[in-house]
Amino acid sequence: MMISLSSLFDQNDFAGIDCIIAAVSGGSDSLAMLFLLRDYLVRSGWKQRLVAVTIDHGLRDESASEARDVAELCARNSIVHETLAWREEKPVRAVSERARVARYNLLCEAAEKYGARMIVTGHTLDDQVETYIMRLLRGGNSSRGLAAMPRLSLLWQKFRLLRPFLGIRRITLRNYLLKRGIVWIDDPTNANPHYERVRIRNCLDDKTVLEARKAVAAAARKRREEAEIIAALVLKSHMRLRSERLWFDLQPLGIDEGEAFAALVTLATVIMGGAEHPIVNQKLKLKEFFVAQDNGLHRITMSGAVIEMTGKFLRIWREKRNLASCMLLPGQTVIWDGRYRVSNSGRETVILRAPTQLEVRQIIGELPAYIADAHDLHFPSLETTCMIYGKNDFDLPVLNRYSLKNGDIGLQRIILPFDWLVSEYDLAILKAFLPIFTIKAGKMIKTAGNFHDLGPPNLGNG
Asked: Does the predicted model carry a pTM greater than 0.70?
């Protein structure tokens, strides 16, 4: 089977891109991607710089020599190459997931170094089908999970992650490499039946692949449609952040919008609670809560957040429990409580913690009347915000229009479910949320592992 470059890549894929990072492990999929991508760029007359990056996870004895083999292959073909090593202590559990996160973080660091705005991987239709079946076997029945991998995603709300081969079988790519005389590396892990993905891979046949591909496409369409509806409800319900409470107007909503509104509130609760994912059956529990309003139930907690519903409004704020206190060292950036990214460019250590009610009242008393009166002074939520405690003073940014007395501190609100990786299916939601949650104070510093200075992402044409 011949591979058509025009069917893999779109002319809009690389618009506005000056440099591309190709994630190359040395396996068949990534090597085929590298050479097909280079061929496309050359034939299309694109002038983008192409950099191949290999991540040495250090999980197998052979990984370093395999990375050198990839480097030599790239050198013979005049392709810029760099190897990056995962040097953190290796986990005992969830090794595959932790390695995946580390791999993408290192690829993003390479993108930062080379000024690239795009990362391309070689995931195939086989990978897509395996992902779909794994999620199906785990009881997944929503479009969110069953849509599997999107062609386009955003990493660090900054770098486009392109997977152009999700419609191509691995065997097709291997035949392409054989014809070109390119030798790939077989990772023995990919044949170890200890792993669920390998067991599923060994059972795939053409009929299963075809059926799964259709199911993934249907789930992806549904997920994108749901995201558009949720994004529209953000505007319709006048969703807004007042201090540490997220408000919704209920009166504009129609009776038939309960399902979509429950999905929006589910996501909003996760964000306000500093969580990354909703709890099991959270949307169902929310719908039951909406119905229970007639019985006098007006407040519940879930995902670390309080949800309060009255006749006209729904409000969400962080639950006052499990609020961590941590030291922020000079030169360090941390995520506090899943809600704020805070950095310290100074020479003194500061402490991040939630304030007491006495401290909140003290700051309110010190504020000019026109500022204090303008704020929504709701103590249960204000006592969950981020306070920055220095050697001689403390800052409570939410009560001072996000200005900081300590000029060495930078703070920004984050949307944790979308902070690291966001699918193209959810871009409509992200676009709707960014104007509400993009809050900054001071100057952020960049540190390896805690990423980027958040800003409106380059969403591309996807």
From this structure: yes
